[in-house]
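Q: I'm writing up a methods section and want to include an example of the input and output format. Could you take the sequence below and give the corresponding predicted structure tokens, formatted cleanly so I can copy it straight into the document?
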Amino acid sequence: MRIVDDQVRDHPVAALRNASSAADLVVVGSRGLGGFSSAVLGPVGHGVLHHAVCPVAVVPPSEAAHEAR
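A: Here is the clean output for your methods example:
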């Protein structure tokens, strides 16, 4: 397994769409925890789901990250 950490100056959706052409998986976060809020995507997650050319995993924030808000 290889993880790539690139720092690109571009709109996030465009950067992730372009990176998806060489990726096996793109991971984006959802906006909330549990119930309806966990199904809510922000504009970047939504754009990546529609434009990526590889599979996309949508991951909710951890409980600790949610409590820190």
